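Hi Y.,

Following your request, here is the sequence exactly as I used it, all 128 residues.
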Amino acid sequence: MEITNAIGRRKSAIARVFVSKGAGNITINKRELAVYFPSGILQYIVKQPLNTLNVAEQYDIKVNLQGGGFKGQAEALRLAIARALVKIDPNDKSALKKAGFLTRDAREVERKKPGRPKARKRFQFSKR
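Below is the corresponding structure, written out as tokens. Let me know if you'd prefer a different format.
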């Protein structure tokens, strides 16, 4: 049985994906997709690369997810699944790239600076 793996990152979330032939089951941290992501929107985000290629029922996906919030985790998982699908069949790369699923969103939280309340916010200026 052939297993393909890939990694996706978004903000501080990291998704490690293991894709194998199967019936379309997605297991995240030993829980079902619908249990881990109750929101239909997040489930849709995760399944986007599979639905784009019409292969949602052909692969079983096991996922290790760490860090971040639920939105960042869903988008990290989407990137990881897209990368794994390209490893399986390089001909799918153009369709996934056109849809924007192979682009890593590199935006991270800017660090807090000393002498300021947040990264860019400043304390109120007092003339006197």
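The mean pLDDT is 94.

Thanks again,
Q.
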